[in-house]
Design brief:
The chain is of the alpha+beta class. The protein has a domain at 2-122: Ribosomal Protein S5, domain 2 (2-Layer Sandwich), CATH 3.30.230. The protein contains five helices and 18 strands. The strands form five sheets. Strands 11, 12, 13, 14, 15 and 18 form a six-stranded mixed beta sheet that branches. Strand 6 (52-54) and strand 7 form a beta hairpin. Helix 1 packs parallel to helix 2 (104-111). The chain is globular.
Length: 269
């Protein structure tokens, strides 16, 4: 597949879901073989597993003391569009704007702004089974010429057990919002997170109901968003991935364990 960048710079502005700070990001086109990086306070932070500094409730990148938080939704959108060369300048706060909690606004603005470049970029092909596990949660990566992700979640609410398989239709996941459970809110706040969270950008799930006006965008919206998160975390590898992924109760930390395992294979190869 061909490398891709964007035709012209794009700006997004909004609040960070965990920091509560207002941030503006400017996406700049880049030449071939540049890769994707974040730029803040004069420091360039390449998208790489080596620069991941936190995976607790978000995926954060950092270098030389400069951190950019909650990069997963933007990376997922770039992954879905195959954008491989880009600089993301971060102004104001240190967290990517949460927008409405989904990838919709990023995707809407970027879709018509993609520019194919001359050089090829090889996707990472899963060649043998890779499994990571933490407690009763696990993710398995299997060889396949496709890009397919199955996520199964078990929720202690009326939603119960949900399972969803993504086979490439962006419309099936792009509106799925980040979510939290009502009983988790106090814990999240105590850990200094969720300062920018609201019903405008987070799906809040009670034991018996959804608190957001309009309810769910998909019947299984939470697991679809988990798939979206994994797509973003996989793009830490710097290229698209070909394989079949099955995640059971996975999250950012376990996603990163998988990314590290795949990255080690790339380094060995």
């Amino acid at each position: 597949m061909k490398q891709r960048t964007i035709k012209e710079a794009l700006e997004f502005e909004g609040v960070g879901i965990h920091s509560g700070e207002k941030t503006k990001i400017i996406l700049h086109p880049e030449k071939e073989d540049t890769g994707i990086s974040f730029y803040r306070h004069g420091v360039r932070i390449p998208v790489s597993p080596e620069n991941v500094v936190n995976t607790f409730h978000s995926t954060d990148l950092g270098k030389d003391g400069v951190v950019v938080k909650t990069v997963e939704h933007l990376l997922a959108t770039l992954h879905l569009l195959g954008i491989s060369n880009l600089t993301i300048e971060v102004q104001g706060g240190n967290e990517i704007p949460i927008m409405d909690g989904s990838g919709y606004f990023f995707y809407r603005e970027l879709k018509g702004n993609v520019l194919k470049q001359g050089s090829d970029i090889e996707p990472l092909q899963i060649r043998e089974e890779v499994r990571v596990q933490r407690g009763d949660s696990h993710i398995v990566a299997l060889p396949c010429s496709c890009f397919e992700i199955t996520y199964e979640g078990v929720f202690e609410t009326y939603l119960g057990r949900q399972r969803y398989t993504f086979r490439g239709n962006v419309r099936d996941i792009i509106l799925a919002r980040t979510f939290c459970f009502e009983h988790e809110i106090e814990f999240i706040k105590k850990n200094g997170l969720g300062k920018g969270g609201s019903l405008e950008n987070t799906l809040v799930i009670g034991r018996e109901r959804i608190y957001n006006e309009g309810g769910l965008r998909y019947q299984d919206e939470p697991v679809r968003h988990k798939v979206f998160d994994l797509i973003g975390d996989l793009y830490l590898l710097g290229t698209s991935v070909r394989g079949k992924f099955v995640s059971y109760k996975g999250g950012h930390s376990l996603n990163f364990e998988l990314v590290k395992a795949l990255y080690e294979q790339v380094l060995v190869a």
